[in-house]
Amino acid sequence: MNAGVRRPRRRVDGVLLLDKPTGLSSNAALQRAKRAFDAEKAGHTGTLDPLASGLLPLCFGEATKFAQYLLDAGKTYVATLRFGIETSTGDAEGDVTATTDLAVTRPDLAAVLPRFTGRIAQVPPRHAALKFEGRAYYDYARKGIEIPRVARDVVVDTLAITDFAPPFATLTLTCSKGTYVRVLAEDIGRALGCGAHLTALRRTATGGFGIADAVTLEALEALPLAARDALLLPMTVLVGDLPRLVLDPLAGARFRQGMAVPAGGVAPGACAVFEGDRLLGVATSDGVLAAPRRVVADLSGSAGGAAAPSLMSA
Known about the structure:
The chain has 314 residues and is of the alpha+beta class. Among the domains are: 75-206, 2-Layer Sandwich (Pseudouridine synthase); 239-295, PUA domain (Archaeosine Trna-guanine Transglycosylase, Chain: A, domain 4). Helix content is 19%, strand content 34%. It has eight helices and 19 strands. It has helices at residues 26-37, 68-71, 106-112, 137-142, 181-192, 217-222, 225-230, 249-256; strands spanning 14-20, 42-44, 52-60, 75-83, 85-87, 96-99, 118-122, 131-132, 135-136, 152-165, 168-175, 196-206, 209-210, 215-216, 244-246, 261-262, 269-275, 278-285, 289-295. The strands form four sheets. Strands 1, 2, 3, 4, 7, 10, 11, 12, 13 and 14 form a ten-stranded mixed β-sheet that branches. The chain is globular and about 70 Å long. It starts with 13 loop residues before the first strand and ends in a 19-residue tail after the last strand. The model is unreliable at 306-314 (pLDDT under 50).
């Protein structure tokens, strides 16, 4: 086949656990994976900055309808901080804005970490994808325009020192969605009186998935198409934590047509709706009826995973 001829896109449904490399944006990694599958539709489940590497679950086809459940999941990271230097972006990609020769010891660091566990308030960084008046924060930052940035509550469940070699320290943390680890690095540095910035970040787990089950782009692209398809997990892994409502064929047909169905004793809230082992979608139950929120289209003819590998709990 001529290398310049683009292969036709095809229907692909499922979830790929990608090990994103450093130096590549999440969207660039997504586009490479999408081309590897010749997929019609794909999306990622939470941005990793180009500086960061690690677990980036990608959703293909109908699985994109349930990506929010991974976006909302907690995350586990390994972060490397450099003390004594602050930068404009809070990481190694920014310009140096302040330096100090103040020495930091491991006991000093251990003493301040409890301040940054539990529910804490974070001011989002100037270089963030959050929006203000319809434009991303980083657009304003690049033009030198200051905008109001309101502190937001996030949760850091665990925060531990795994290596200490001044002026560097490596921390492992588990945290809620929306946590900016580079802001955490800056705040820890300021608490120590020496300043700090993030030099490396690797996501190792999210939503019950672990980095051990992820594939690199290079390994993915080296495989034949059938072997790539075999790496896809079924979209059911995205809704595994939701209560399960199982319908008979008649009720299943009604649900697929967008009609509410009996909740079957499922408590109020979101639930995953099945007909047998087939995922039909996600509904909102009021305890009596379950109203469709997301409905899966017909999957006949789709390429996608049939079973999940062993998953590491986040």
